[in-house]
Amino acid sequence: MSKSLGNVIDPIDVIQGLSLEKLHEKLYEGNLDEKEIVKAKAGQKKDFPKGIPQCGTDALRFALCAYSGGGRDINLEILRVEGYRKFCNKIFNATKFAMLKLDETFVPEPIAKPTGNESLVEKWIFHKLNIAATEINRQLTERNFMAATTVAYNFWLYELCDVYIEAMKPMTDPSASETTRKSSQQTLYTCLDYGLRLLHPFMPFVTEELWQRLPRRPNDSTPSIMLAKYPTFDKDFVFEDADKQFDLVFNATRTGRSVAASYNLQSDIQIFLHITNDAEAALFESQVPTMVTLTKGCKSVKVVRDLSEVPAGCGSTALTHTIGVHVLVRGLVDLDVEIEKCEKKLHLARLGLEKIKKIEAQADYEDTVPANVRVANEDKRMVYEAEVATLEVSKAMFAQLK
Fold first, then answer.
1. Which residues of the chain form CATH 1.10.730.10?
2. In this structure, are strands 298-304 and 269-275 parallel, antiparallel, or unpaired?
3. CA–CA separation, 266 and 257 (whole Å)
4. How far is CA 377 from CA 362, 373, 380, 385, 394, in A?
5. Taking the CA of residue 158 as centre, how many other CA atoms within 13 Å lie in the half-sphere pointing to its CB?
6. Of the candidates 383, 352, 377, which has an alpha carbon nearest to the alpha carbon of residue 365?
7. Residue in 151, 156, 143 with CA at minimum distance from that of residue 69
8. Phi and psi angles of residue 324, each rounded to the nearest 5 degrees, phi first
9. What CATH superfamily classification does 84-238 receive?
10. What is the pTM (predicted TM-score) of this model?
11. What is the pLDDT of residues 110-146, one digit of tens each?
12. pLDDT reading at 187 higher than 90
């Protein structure tokens, strides 16, 4: 950084915001000569063409913690700080929305423990919260603030906001059972309470403001989030099986959304899941409402056991060797183009399959290749085989529609 280049940033300007004209004016407050001022103005215009947006204290502090892993000199990117300001807004709006789900009669349980009535997605978010708390504590102990902020950011944005708060909407609907509604509310409250505490060291102001709005557990008179116990690992929040199961469900959901997006489908989306494994089929059948909720514009999700039950005219892909994801696109696409797409994907899948088969066919394969690598290769081979079978059926279906 150099004053003569005009790229020295006053933290107050990042917090409060400053126009480009005001940035230029501040150059005259120093002892730069005219040539350096001209050079600095050019640098400011290049780096801050619209000035510095108002980002706030919490966003700046979070950004500085996130930058702390790169050495003593920080090449601060103002757009990244502005992104953390939007993250603050996301937290504020998500908490505000979530509070609407906690009605006036809501009373938190005396202690933050699972009640035993939790659904799969509730167990999943508890497990993710536990992982986040454990990892943040470890990174703070090692003074790795960059990694700690990343964990906190990912939990709030990609797990709590993008998944659980969306998935719980039907669970808090008046049509839901009282047991389901109360359980989802308790889970939401615990996640908000602990989530704000985890964020507090990096964003003290917004977390204090929001935490004060939360109801308190019975006999809890803690006056400030600063004095609240910081979340740590809790064995009662360990749900490894639920974590694996819902990760699989969510991966299928994202795959369905991706296929729909590739065809520019935004409404009346119909997803068919071809599942050959009995346990997985039962799992997905129980999670159909959640998948519909997490897929914007989704009309239905149907689990089928036989590929013949998948209607003709679907865009398809293999998630695993036992799960195929199909999205109905009949009447919405150019059939010749779709057949060509299938042929290209088939070519790539067959190349991948041949490559794996050649590796597995080597004479000394069993003796020289570690067991974990052999297992990984076997999984890849089965996925490629499932992909080839799925694409061949899709290609034939599109051809029949011509």
1. 84-238
2. parallel
3. 10
4. 13, 6, 5, 12, 25
5. 11
6. 377
7. 143
8. -115, 135
9. Isoleucyl-tRNA Synthetase; Domain 1 (1.10.730.10)
10. 0.81
11. 999 998 999 999 999 999 999 999 999 999 999 999 9
12. yes
